[in-house]
Specification:
Layout lengths: L4 E5 L1 H12 L6 H17 L3 E2 L4 H8 L4 H15 L7 H18 L21 H6 L9 H25 L6 H25 L6 H19 L4 H9 L8 H16 L9 H11 L5 E3 L2 H9 L9 E3 L4 H9 L13 H21 L16 H10 L1 H14 L8 H11 L5 H19 L4 H4 L2 E4 L7 E4 H18 L14
Parallel strand pairs: 1-2, 1-3, 3-4
Antiparallel strand pairs: 5-6
Helix pairs in contact: 1-2, 1-4, 3-12, 5-9, 8-9, 8-11, 9-10, 11-12, 15-19, 15-21, 16-19, 17-19
Length: 499
């Protein structure tokens, strides 16, 4: 690879990796976590990836562990980060606000750069003195400070519960919630401190971080000879300030938790997740988090907006394949039209796996809505249906044309017969494997491939001629329709991904 991949690890995963390093992790996840630690370490040793450390993650671990365990977490974090940490969240946000303000003054666009987030470019060559040090300064062992951080977490959860209660009777869309949360965050971090600074008031401890970023932006205006109060106030009250990655990510995650996860509610750990992800996500190639946060980041295309692939521990094998795919894999930038299609495919495949898990095992052999097929035959059709798509992609890449469409009935009969003895779990694994190869081939498509004329199939409609890009955009409809066909034998409902 020409550069390192930058991978974010959430607190829960880092804690499990530390337990694996101590040999104290028990249960079915132990073996996979030990494999993950070995694989992540090999990626770092081979200079393929780097896993930067961050303050919020260390602070969160401190609040819930004995000192000996904290040392294990620090050691694993140091081993995987090679001495490269994310800048503190306040530093990243300060740089974003300042650069947004400069872009606002100049009338130009704003693009995040690594300088905002790291002391050294983690994708390039890391100075030897950082690798030799390979440690992260410890947060604090002061019991009073720990108590203060626990209080902040509780206050955060109580505040979010109260806000949700106040909004309960309002009909708000996701975009409504996101806009309200973004403006609230900007008020807390920028507008409020700006008013106090302009009025000459002292900032208390809670506003120190916000005050520093406001001060930095105001300094830019002063250097340019602008009228400080007017230029900054126009910026702070405009939509431009909401375009910063940290504000956008924070507001998007909050809106998704509030609207899409009402039964889950707010939890104390969400405070540090929000703080760390809002600062780090825009600068990462990949994010490892729990399944719940993975769903949030994918459901609303939050990670996709910043070009980050999202994984949970159950996706370790997929991550390994994606890394091995190299420059053509999903961890590298795809054609801007194909990237969202690949991300949508990931969501649908994840949904199919969840649906299969929800099915009552005793009912796989029952007749499906399709004559001659059991429900397991239908799953086999889904798991092996990628073969036709793979054949068309390979033909397009090799000859410039997707080739004639295969006989779908014959292919279905062959695949179902071949997998008659396969378990549902094996079929899901087959589906994930084929998805990985489809993604690899999607990454090889060039703009001229997307313009080739072919049959466009929309579920429930007759085929018609159109560009290959349009055909790609509708491939997932077939899978979602068949996933719905499995609902009569499911033990619990599984909501499909949003369009």
């Amino acid at each position: 690879m020409s550069r390192r991949l930058v991978v974010y690890l959430d607190t829960n995963l880092l804690s499990d990796l530390a337990k694996a390093s101590l040999g104290t992790l028990k249960g079915p996840a132990a073996g996979r976590t030990e494999q993950a630690l070995a694989f992540f370490t090999s990626l770092v040793d081979c200079r393929v990836a780097i896993f930067p450390d961050c303050w919020s993650r260390q602070a969160e671990v401190e609040l819930r562990a004995e000192r000996g365990f904290e040392d294990a977490v620090r050691n694993v974090a140091a081993r995987l980060s090679r001495g490269v940490p994310f800048h503190p969240e306040s530093h990243i946000l300060e740089h974003q606000i300042t650069e947004l303000f400069v872009a606002h003054l100049d009338g130009t666009g704003y693009v995040p750069t690594w300088q905002e987030a790291f002391p050294w470019d983690p994708r390039g060559a890391i100075p030897s003195h950082l690798e030799q040090k390979a440690t992260h300064s410890w947060v604090t062992s002061d019991s009073e400070r720990r108590h203060h951080r626990r209080q902040l977490k509780r206050l955060f959860v109580n505040d979010r519960h109260e806000r949700a209660r106040q909004r309960a009777n309002l009909t708000l869309t996701y975009e409504d919630l996101k806009a309200a949360n973004a403006r609230e965050y900007a008020e807390m971090m920028v507008l409020g401190p700006a008013r106090r600074l302009l009025l000459g008031e002292r900032l208390d401890f809670a506003h120190t971080m916000a005050g520093s970023m406001v001060g930095a932006a105001m300094e830019v205006a002063t250097e340019r000879g602008d009228i400080l109060a007017i230029s900054f106030w126009k910026f702070a009250n405009s939509a431009a300030i909401l375009e910063g990655p940290a504000i956008d990510i924070w507001a998007s995650i909050e809106a998704s938790i509030e609207l899409d996860e009402p039964s889950r509610g707010w939890q104390e750990g969400d405070h540090y997740d929000l703080e760390a992800l809002s600062a780090a996500l825009a600068y990462c190639d990949a994010v490892f988090c729990d399944r719940n946060m993975k769903g949030i980041l994918r459901r609303r295309r939050i990670a996709g907006r910043y070009g980050a692939a999202v994984y949970s521990m159950r996706d370790l094998d997929q991550f390994r394949r994606d890394v091995e795919a190299g420059p053509t894999g999903p961890l590298k930038a795809m054609n801007r039209h194909v990237g969202p299609i690949a991300e949508r495919w990931d969501e649908v495949t994840e949904h199919l796996a969840d649906v299969a898990h929800a099915v009552d095992r005793d009912k796989w052999g029952e007749p499906s809505p399709y004559p001659g097929w059991t429900y397991k035959d239908l799953l086999a059709h889904l798991a092996t249906g990628f073969s036709i798509r793979l054949a068309r992609l390979r033909s397009l890449l090799e000859t410039g044309q997707p080739g004639p469409e295969p006989d779908a009935d014959a292919a279905n009969a062959e695949n179902i017969a071949r997998h008659r003895e396969s378990s549902p779990e094996a079929l899901v694994e087959e589906m994930v494997r084929q998805r990985s190869e489809v993604r690899r081939l999607l990454g090889l498509l060039r703009p001229e491939h997307l313009e080739v004329r072919t049959n466009v199939h929309r579920w429930g409609q007759p085929p018609r001629q159109g560009p290959f890009l349009e055909a790609l955009q509708h491939w997932h409809e077939h899978d979602l329709a068949h996933a719905a066909d499995l609902s009569p034998i499911m033990r619990w409902p599984v909501a499909p991904p949003e369009a």
